[in-house]
Fold these 3 entries.
Entry 1:
Amino acid sequence: MPGFEIVAREDFSDVTYLLEVRHPLMAKAAKAGQFVIVMEHEHGERIPLTIADFDRDKGTITLVIQAVGKTTREMQQNCKVGTHLHALVGPMGIPSHIGHAKKVLCIGGGLGVAPIYPQARAYKESGAYVIAVLGFRNRALMFWEDKFRACCDELIVCTDDGSAGLKGLVTEGIKQAVSAHADIVEAVAIGPPIMMKGCADATRPHGIKTMVSLNPVMVDGTGMCGGCRVKIGEQIRFACVDGPDFDGHQVDFDDLMKRLGRYKPTEKAALQNWEASCRLRGGPGHAH
């Protein structure tokens, strides 16, 4: 059968779901920080997704996805165990530089908690003392706490509503970690642009080198389309081939957020059209 088989699925909430896909060659080649481009079906959109985990023995790649736009909602509806993805290209992007830092902060916000996991594990394997700071809107949206506890020396959970861990944003967790450990030398943060900007602002006064993973709109993933242009200091870079990791203290987050905002009307129209066609077919795509 063509395509790449989905061998496991887990739903973390009504919008967040995990797909484990069989792709032995990719599982062998994948490194922390890299991403893939997925097409659910032959006429589907190409979407970039960061690799959340890989298992070389099982030959699988794990993706954690949030159903926000037309394609991710369509995948939420159709991708079940035993079905196949039409295309899965990667691993793409430059792997994260793990190096030999002695003490590091790994910060994940919302969906960014998934791709920060391979980074935390890689740092631990390199011999670092790893402190993870994970942020969720509330306790119900939490996932992978056990996986992080298994590979981190300390885990700080933050929730917007205080239903678990510290009440507040991940920046509260960063403050707690920095006040307890004056010798943190590196941080890596993955999450929405506004969250990564907050992390960079929180670590800057302490001189902690902070890497962020940027996931802007991409079409081809090879630097040809220019859709993923980002401003890093005075230079223009392409997230797909120069990244996705960049120095958080150099990223122009305001430009990044403005650029992402430009696609909102098109994304909204695509979602509305898809929901309307689902209603016509009597499918489950109607808005909740």
Entry 2:
Amino acid sequence: MLSAVHSDRSGRLVVAADYAAAMSDGASVGPLAQTIRLPAGTEVVQLPGRTSVGLDRTGRARELGTGRFGVGAIVPIGYLRMALPAYEEDLAAPPLKSRAYAAVGADADGELVVSAVALDPDAGAADGRATPDLLARITATQRDHPSSRVLRQLARCAKDYRCRAAANAFLGRHDCALPVAASRNERPPEVLVLSDDADASPTEPAAFRPAPEELAEAGARHLEGGGTVVAFGRACEGEPLLAVRLIEAAISAIRQRTRVGSIHLETNGSVPTALRRLCDAGLDSVAVRLASARAETYEVLHRPEGFRFADVRASIAVSIAAKVSVALRVLTLPGLTDRARELDALVGLAGDLPPESSLILCGLASDPQRTLRIADGADAPVGMERMLDRLRTDAAHLRIVALPRPLVRL
């Protein structure tokens, strides 16, 4: 039997051996299931103001008592959460910090377990190379390029906000995010954020609007120096399609200097005509981010300004027609994404994608219970395991992966 785990007032984790571990599927509370030992890199956090819930000897859900707060786990890259923490909601308490919380318990050895699955074969694996001292690399790079405003901004993102994609600009590997200071055209409810890197997102906009030449210099330098991808529109940015002229010119300038590597775009797909221009300029891949494939739910969660879900579908069609690599980045929430109608809509949208496209399942960073109330629906969830089974069957032509939280810790 798995035991309940809670946090005391000091933040210390406590195993409540007299209660069985519980989880929420978004609609009801039941025994914790689909668990694995806590993967390396998992963070376990307190849920302040939320009383932890466990199962008594009869299997009934019970509050563990005053001062016994719920806890949740944030799983690392390659894993997908399968259930939410079970806790008693306090409507008077402030919303939880928007994170992708997963249910936690303890096994017979007292080891923590989490309700999650590994979607990638190498989930949690190390890079295989020793990571050089990042701060030293940043200092050296800025000394060699003292006038680069782009590198100055990326240094700040890497140091102050622990952004992996910014750090890569100095490590000379993998993907590098290029800041464009784009504006936003979504105003989601305060209980959620529509980004994958919620904890790495800055609390203020980029300090400047770069010129295309500045972006091209940093981008080409990364690709020529061992990096594989330069990306526009990472989580801390606004919507890059609203800065189409800047990015279009930057892509053209990068490709005039080098043909190596890939140029990638992360977008909400709000402006199909802008996306077509970027594809024509030399874009190699695009990931369209969404919290729901149903128009009704999409409108509630994204609160789009100046566009509708039909524009998102049109952008996907533009990408397919341009023959760039396409991915759907789906922000999942147990109790919402696994509702029957939501799943039907997701399968339908995935069916439009050509073979070898990707379905990237990420955790929706949110206060889960309050988000579920906002996205209220009549149909009950079928469960995340059945959702995955359905996707693997009805979207078998796609590569299904998980990408919840790509961060670097200094």
Entry 3:
Amino acid sequence: MLTVSSIDRRRFLRDTITVAGFSFAAAAIPTQLLAQTAARRFAPVKVSRDRVIREVVGLRPFRPEGYLVDAERAGAKLLVHNYGHGGAGITLSWGTAVQAVDLVRDFSVASTPRRTSRPTRFAVIGCGVNGLSTAIMIQRRYAEIGGTVTIYAKDLPPDTTSNIAGGFWSPTSVYDGDAASTRFLEQFRTAARISNRAFQLLVGADYGVRWFDTFDLGRSEASLQYQLPGGNDLYPQLTVHRDPEHYFGFPFVRQYSTMIIEPQVYLRSLLRDFHNAGGRIVVKEFRNREEVLMLPDQVIFNCSGLGARALFDDKKLTPVRGQLEILLPQPEVDYCYLGGGYMFPRSDGIVLGGTFDHDNWSLDVNREQANYILNSHMEIMRAMQPRA
């Protein structure tokens, strides 16, 4: 069995990770419940309307049953779906890319009337984080046999939905607990672990990935009991604080470490990696499934996100609208919090958000929501006590 410490960085970059049989050894990260530690100093976030530099609205592609990673034969081609990640498109991207590319393993194409061979021509529909991650994973897996990858997309970074994501590593709002199957939940947990490890190997300025102390703010004892998304073992240094005077005025606070991914930096780096490995991009919009299947490539990956609803008639796929208020950057803010909303510090601004509007297709800024977001974070800042 592989353990976290035995996974070699170079092996991951060459993509020898597979989903079948992949598991992490039980993480030996101690949960320090009720730990009494010295109070941490927090630089206050300066929340005010005149510090808002932009307001953005995005639509998360949500399926109650969870994201879809599946393959189907379409004549002589293989069509692989990888979409519907809800609020965890960036978070799960490497995990579901591995799961999607693994589905090609047993597919072969006719090279002569009597012989078959592995496919060498691949298409990816979509150039958001899941399209790029999948395309790079294909390159790693098939480069040695001359595999080529072409991305077809209507929108390219910096104009994709992925570019306006918060970028907080946590696989949230991915599925409806009443609709997700046991099989999907196992697939989800595996993807979360693969992806978590992958992002750890990308930490640094080049990819815009950083570790942050995160504080989960709760009003009741029950807030301490639920598992963090994907499992507590994915969040090092998990500690509980019962000290409202020093922790945002909340009586129950869970502190842990997780990663922030800056979408603008990260997607730009993925594009660079894809091009450097010989990838090609074609700007193209498809109107229906038939147009997709007319592509000359042997294997086609559908990473079209919310576009898959119309393109592949997936009526289970619906939008979950999210709105963000971005404040002027504050380099001194070195923590995140979640509680009635969320705050993530990035180099391009302080991200305030936390709205989840199901079946709402509007991309217009909602002024009431904007005021609610700002007022909620102002209250949290007012509750912070001066530090000695």
